[in-house]
Amino acid sequence: MNTEISNSETTDPSALLEFRQVNTHYGAVHILKDVDLAIYPGELVCLLGGNASGKTTTLKTLLGMVTPTSGEVVLDGEVVNNQPTSYRVANGVTMVPENRRLFKRLTVKENLMLGAYLRNDRDGINEDLEYVYDLFPRVKERLSQKAGTLSGGEQQMVAIGRALMSRPKVLLMDEPSMGLAPALVQQNFELIEKINNEGMAIFMVEQNANMALSIADRGWVLLTGRVILDDTAEALRANEDLQKAYLGGGSGE
Amino acid sequence: MTTLPSSLLLDWKRIFKWGSICAAALLFVSLVGMPIKLDPKSIISPLLSLGYVSLLWLPLIFGYVASSRVVLEGVETRKPGLPDLLTGVLTGTIGGAGLTLLMLGIENFDIRDPLINWSPQLLEVLAFGARDLNSAVWIGIGGALGLVGAGLHLIPENLRRGASYGFFTVLALAIFEPALDDMSEGFRLEWLVELIFEKRGGLKLWPAIILALLIGLISVVTKGKAKNAVAQYREQEKSQKKKTSVVLFGIVAALGIVLPIFMGTYVNSLLANVGIFLLLALGLNIVVGLAGILDLGYVAFFAVGAYTTAVLTSELSPFFAPGMTWVLSLVFVIILAALTGLFIGAPVIRMRGDYLAIVTLGFGEIIRLLFLSDFLKPYFGGAQGILGVPGIDLGVVYISGTDTRGIFYLVLFFCAIAVYVSWRLQASRLGRSWMAIREDEQVAEAMGINTVNSKLMAFVVGAVLASFAGAIMAARVGSVFPNSFMILISIVILVVVIVGGMGSIPGVFVGAFVLIGVLGGPKQPGLLQEFGSLKLLVYGMLLVYMMLQKPEGLVPSARRTQELHQEEFLQDAWLKGTDDEDEEQTVAGEEAQI
Fold this sequence. Notes:
The complex is a heterodimer of chains A (253) and B (594).
Chain A: E1 17-23, E2 25-26, E3 29-30, E4 35-39, E5 44-49, H1 55-63, E6 70-75, E7 78-79, H2 85-90, E8 93-96, H3 108-115, H4 122-135, H5 137-141, H6 152-164, E9 170-174, H7 182-197, E10 201-206, H8 209-215, E11 218-223, E12 226-232, H9 233-238, H10 240-245
Parallel strand pairs in A: 5-10, 5-11, 8-9, 9-10
Antiparallel strand pairs in A: 1-4, 1-6, 2-3, 6-7, 11-12
Chain B: H1 12-31, H2 34-38, E1 42-44, E2 48-49, H3 50-67, H4 82-108, H5 120-126, H6 137-154, H7 157-175, H8 177-187, H9 190-196, H10 205-221, H11 225-235, H12 238-262, H13 265-290, H14 299-313, H15 326-348, H16 353-372, H17 377-380, E3 392-393, E4 398-399, H18 404-427, H19 429-439, H20 441-446, H21 451-477, H22 487-500, H23 505-519, H24 534-549, H25 558-576, H26 580-593
Helix pairs in contact in B: 1-3, 1-4, 3-4, 3-6, 4-6, 7-10, 8-9, 12-18, 13-18, 13-21, 13-22, 13-23, 14-15, 14-16, 14-21, 15-21, 18-19, 18-21, 19-21, 22-23, 22-24
C-alpha cells in the first residue's frame, strides 16, 4: 500500500468503496490524477467539479467501465481493478445514470426487474420491489406503463428504484439534478436524502454544488482530474474559494 | 356568370401536385415494363390483366388521396361534395395525360436505346391492342378513375367497405389461382375451379362479379366483428389468453400438418421455399428484432450450413467426403455455425449501429468469396460448387430433394423449433438482457449485464437457425454453389422481418408468406411469377412505403402496439389535464413549505 497517502481516511478498512491513488487515461490523455476517495457506510458524499473535471470518469472507474492505469479501486476491502462491471454490481455498487436513462420502451416493471438482473433470489427481489413501492407509491401505479411516457419526476423515481433493485451497498448518482425542472430538483434531493436516511451510502456527482452540499455529509472538489478540496460539507460551504468558483459569488441569502 | 361560387374554388396547387406525381408514377410503371410483363397474368379473363391493374390503380388512388381532406378537431370540416369530385377528376386527368404524352412520344420519337420499354409493344398494350386508338383516351380513363377515387369519399362507409372487399377478393383469387388449381386436385374440387377460372388463366366474368358481390355483402354484414374478436382476445385474462393462444396455435399446426397431404407439388414446393425463408427470418428476427443488432451479412450462416452439409454428406465433395447421413451432419452443422457466429461476432460485437451493419455486410460477402476463391477450390469446389448432395434419410422415411412434401414437413419441423426457441428466449433472462441492450447498451452494462456475451449469444442462436435452413436447402437442391449465397438473400430476409414487424413472430410469418409466397424469393418464383426481376422493385417500394407509413410492420409485436396505444392514452390524459396537474400542485405545495 502506498504509504505517502496524505489522507488517512483512504486507508481505513471500514470504507465501502475506495480509490487509492487512481490514475486513468483516455488514450494518451491523463484524466484522473492520483485521486483518493473513500465512501463509508451510511454516508452521503458528493463530488463537485466543473465541466471536464473528471467527475463522470470517476464514476465509470468505480463501476469498472474504465480501467485505471495505476492505483487501486477497492470495494468492501477487495481490490477490484480487474473485475468487470457485473462483478461490482453484484457486490454492491450501482449507478443511477445521468439524465435517468430508463429503458424507455420497456415497462416500469421491466425496468425495475432489469435492475435486479444479476440476482436469483426471488423472495429477496420481491421484498425489494415492495420496498421500492413503499418508497415511491407513484411508481406502483405506473408499473405496466412504458417508462418513456412518465413525467420527469416519475422517471427519476424509477431510475432510483431500478438502481435499488440490485440491493446495493453504495448508490452512485451521476448528476441527479440534470435535466429536471427547478421544482423537481428540490424534490429529487429530498428523495436522495430520504434514501440516505434509510441507511444507504450515496456517492453523488453534481454540478449544482450548493444544493448538493446542503444535504451531503462530505464533499470533494475535482479540478482537471485532481482532488483540490476534501472536507465536510459545512466547511466546503464556508470555503470562499469554492464559493467563488462554483457556488456563484454571494452565498445563501 | 363571371365569378364561381366559393364552393367551386379548387385547391389548384394540390391538384397539380398530386396529378403530376400520378403522371410520373404512371410513366415510371410503364417504362419499367410492368404493363407488358404483367399482361400475361389475367385477373378477369379476358377483360383485365395484372398489367392493366398496375396502371389503373394509380389514378384511382391518387384521385382518392388528392380529394381526401384533413379533419381537424374543433375545426368544422366541409362535407365532401362537388369540389372534391372535381379535384379527383382533374388529378386523374393530369395523370392520364402523362400516358397520352407517352403514347405520342413513342409514336413520334425513338429513344429505345436508353429506355428498353419505349417500344411498340408498350404502345400496343397502352392502346388496348387496338392499333389506331386515339391516345387521348387515357385522359378520359384517368379522369374517370380519379372520379371513382374521389367518389369513394362520398359513398356510405358500408358501400365503400363492400366494394373494396369485393375487389380485393377478386384480386386475391386471381393471385392464388395457381395454388387453388394445384390444391383442387387433392380435394377433388376440380369442378369448382373450372367453374370459377378460365382454362388459360383468370377468373370468368360472371363468377368474378358474383363472388365480389357476395364477399362485399358478407364484409358489410360482419363489419367490425373481426376487430372485436381481436380486441376481446387482447383483453382476456392471462390464463385464458394462454388457452386461446394454445387453441389457435393448435389449429394452425394441424392445418400445417394435414393440408400438405392434399396439396400438389406446386404448392408444396412453394411452401417449402416460404418455409426456408421463414426459418431464416425467424433467426434474423432474434438478432435484429430482439437484440437490435443490424446484421446485414446473415447469409453467411446460411452458406455455412449448406456447405457443411454438402461437404459431409456428398460423395462428390472434392477434398473430404465422409458421406455422412444428413442427420449426423446436422450435429456438425450446429457446431460449425455456432463457431462461425462466434468468429464473426467477436470482432463485430463491440461496434454499434451503422458501423456494425457495414462490417457484417462485409463478412457476409467474405464468406461467399471464400467459397468462390481459387485458394479454397480444392476443398469447396470454387464456382462449380459441390454436387451430389443426397436426400435426407430419417431412418423411417427417405426424403429426396425432389420430394417437396417431405421437404416441406422437414422445414415445418425446424420452423416449429425456431418459433419455440424465439418464444422461450423472449421471456428468458437472456431475452431481457437483449431488450435492455437494444434500448440502451451503456445502461444495460451499468446494470451488470455482460453485453458482449449477450450479443454474442444472439449471434450464435441466429447463426444456428440459419444453418438449419442452409442444411435443408443443400439437400433440397442437391448441390451448393457460392453464388446461391449472394448479399441479396440477406437483404430479402431483412425485408421480410421489417415488413412483417420486427420482433414479432406472427409478423415474420406474414412477411414470409406475403413476400416469398406471393412475390417470390431472390431466385425462387412465387405465386406471381410474372413479376420476374420486377419483384425486387416491388420489394424496394414496399420497404420504402412501410418505413414511411407503418414502421412497426404488418403485424407489430404486442410491445409496439401497446406503446402506440399508450401514447394516445397519455395525450388524452394530458389534454384533460388530469395527469400532470396534481403533480405540479404537490410540487408547488412542497415549495411553499420550504
